[in-house]
Amino acid sequence: MGLEGARVTVVGAGVVGLSAAHDLAAAGATVLVVGDRAAHEGVSGVAGGLWFPYRVTTPPGADDVLLRSRARFEELADRPGTAVTVRAGTVVERTAAPDRSWTAAAIGPREARADELPAGAASGVRASLPVADTPHYLRWLRDRCGHLGVVEQRAQVHDLDATAAATAADLVVLAAGGRSGELVADPDPGHPVGGQVVRLRNPGLVEWLLDEEDPAGLTYVIPRGEDVVCGGTADPWPATTAVDPGVQEQILRRVVAAVPALAGQDVLGAAYGLRPARATLRLGPVPGGAVPVVACYGHGGAGLTLSWGCAEAVVRFAAALLGPRTADRPGPPTGSGPVDDLPQFV
Predict the structure, then answer these.
(1) What residues does the FAD dependent oxidoreductase domain cover (predicted)?
(2) 201 and 261 Cβ atoms separated by less than 8 Å
C-alpha cells in the first residue's frame, strides 16, 4: 500500500506509535515520531510482554486487529534479534461463563486439565502466545524504525494543528496513550489504570500464567529471557505512580503460591505504569483538523498486544485519506480529507 511522498507525524513514541511509524515508513511515507519520552521510559517499558487483550474492548469492525497482531508477533518470533518468542501457558478461569473470545486469535488453545490448574479454579485454557522481552524488543523496534528512515523528536504536543504545521505533515497519527483524548476533545478521553510489577531472576521457567480472578488479587507470571515479570495490580485513577513496597510483598506472595519455583529468587526491579483505559479502542479518522488525523488510542493493558494490527489499520486509513495526491503535490494539504466516507472505529 503505497504512501510515497506522504509526510506523516506520529504523536506518541510508545510501542503503538513506533509500530505505526514502522508500517507507515515501510509503505513509503516519510515519518516523524514526536513524543515526550522514549518508549522504554513510559508504560510500554513496564509491560510484561505477553500477547493478551487485557482490559481492552475492540469496537465493531476492528475484529481483525487482534488476529493480525498475533500473526505479526508470531512471524517476528521466527526472526533472530527481535526478542519475541512463542510460549505455552495457562489462563486460569474462576467463573461459570468465562470470556474466551481471545482464543479465536490464540495458537492451539485447548481445555486445561485439572492437574494444570491451581486450587479453586473452575476451568482454564492452555494456549501458546507470543511473549516479547520488552526492553530488548523496544530497542529492536526503534532500530528497525531508524533503518526505515523514521526520525524521533522529543517534545510534548499540546495542539495537533500546530504540530502538523510545525512538522509540515500531510497527516497526523495520534497514538499518545492516556493524553490522546484531550488532544482531540474526545467526550470519552479514557482514564488511567495503574499497574505495579516486580521482576525476578528467572529460575528456568518457560511457561506463563494469568489468573485475573485470583481471590488474593490479580496474578500473572511472564518468563522472558533472564527475568520473570510478576504482577500485578489494576488501580483506576491511582493517586500515585510510586512503587509500593507493601503491594510488592503481596504480589510476591501471590506469584510464589501460584509458581513455587519463584520462591527466593532475586528481585531485579519493580515498576509502576499507567494503562490508558477507554470504553473501547479508538481507531480511525478524526474530523475537523487542519490535516487528516488518524486516532489510535485507548488500548488499556493491550498496547503491545494490539500494536501491529493497529499499525496495519493506520496505514489503510492513511492511504484512504491521502489517496494519490501526496506524491505530486508541492505543499501540505489544507483540507481534512474525506473523513466522513471512512468507517469510524470509536
Answers:
(1) 7-315
(2) no
User: 490464540: which residue's cell?
Assistant: 106
> What are the phi and psi torsion angles at 151 (to 5°)?
-110, 135
What separation in angstroms does the CA of 310 have from each of 30, 92, 104, 134, 316? 19, 27, 18, 18, 10
> Distance between CA 54 and CA 57 in Å, rounded?
9
Q: What is the pLDDT of residues 134-151, one digit of tens each?
A: 999 999 999 999 999 999
Cα angle 229, 231, 233; round to 5: 145
Closest of 85, 69, 114 to residue 302, by C-alpha: 69
What is the pTM (predicted TM-score) of this model? 0.91
Q: Residue 232, preceding bond cis, omega within 30 degrees?
A: yes
Domains of the chain: 1-83+133-189+278-346 (3.40.50.720), 86-129+191-275 (3.30.9.10)
Closest by alpha carbon to 186, among 67, 266, 331, 286? 286
Contact 308, 175 (CB under 8 A): no
Count Cβ neighbours within 10 Å for each residue of 255-292 and write b for 16 or more, e otherwise.
bbebbeebeebeeeebbbbbbbbbebbbbbbbeebbbb
Strand pairing partners for 130? 86
**Measuring CA to CA, which residue among 214, 50, 231, 52 is closest to residue 122?**
214
User: What is the reported pLDDT for 1?
Assistant: 59
